[in-house]
Amino acid sequence: MSAPLRSRWLVTGAAGMLGRDLLAVLEAIPGIGITAVTRAELDITDAEAVRAAVAGHDVGGLDVGGLDVGGLDVVVNAAAWTDVDGAETEEAAATAVNGDGVRNLAAACAEQGTVLLHVSTDYVFDGRGTSPYPEDAPTDPLNAYGRSKLVGEQAVLELLPARGYVVRTAWLYGEHGGNFVATMLKLAGRTDTLTVVDDQRGQPTWSFELARQLVALGRAALDGTAPAGIYHGTASGETTWFGLARAAFELSGLDPERIRPTTSDAFVRPAPRPGYSVLGHDRWSAAGLKPLPEWRESLAEAIGREAFTGLLPTSTAPTTQPRSRP
Predict the structure, then answer these.
(1) How many CB atoms lie within 10 A of CB 170?
(2) Residue 212 structural domain
(3) How do residues 178-228 score in pLDDT, each as one tens digit?
(4) How far is CA 161 from CA 100, 109, 155, 239, 315, in A?
(5) Residues near 242 by Cβ (< 8 Å), separated by ≥ 6?
(6) Which amino acids are annotated catalytic?
(7) Would 117 be classed as within a structural domain?
(8) Residue 41 to residue 60: CA distance in whole angstroms
(9) What is the model's pLDDT at position 316?
(10) Could you tell me the pTM of the whole model?
(11) CATH code at position 53
């Protein structure tokens, strides 16, 4: 990939699970300067603050790399309202961040000629499908969170037709912050059996793997080889929450028979959840990139990391060694 040798990236939501993985990936690439901002350092609902940040002005965040390269080349937006249930009663507040805040970023990037990578969600679909949703499938959110994220998607596509990238992800887990896999492993030492939903299907996606893909897409965008538009950033393959829990136990050296199946009716939530969250990945070929690996392969690598092994009972060790990575 022949992206510019020196480029400057801004990562919003840098303290989150995906944000921290993005920084780890970017810091390993020579010639990339990074400004990392948390929600406290940059409120994306503040249009003037966003304009200043995208113009390359100091916003008080962590500057990594020390490269004096002028304005920003790429913005990766990992900032979001992520409280799915809370959005049901606070939809305006969720939309202010996930919709209006994203419009601020897109407008600022349009002014500066900057590439924007915006992370969205499978929740923009109705979850009633039976085959993987292609990138151009009609959207029809089934809850307030999905509606708020769709507003952000529309802003990126409207304001940045040539430099805007919407990357939908789902079922995200990682080393930093709360997530389903970490919760299952924590509970392994506290209870004999766990009951997990088996009627929702999706693609468990490791946040570090997604971070690698986002950075590859951003570099392809700078290189002029990745068409703007919508991409689906989820792992290949599919399973249920029950299947994911069993795999996490098995790969950690725990007895998967301790996981028992149930239905969504046993866990009623304020916001309805999609029953089918499997996304298609055809668009990556247009960018010259492969889709993310199969979900179980990534899970094995993730669970081999200290952050996950540290959650296990002291007598337990993973049964699968993580594959090496460059």
Answers:
(1) 21
(2) 7-178+205-237+278-293
(3) 999 999 999 999 999 999 999 999 999 999 999 999 999 999 999 999 999
(4) 18, 11, 10, 34, 54
(5) 196, 197, 198, 259, 261, 262
(6) 145
(7) yes
(8) 6
(9) 55
(10) 0.92
(11) 3.40.50.720
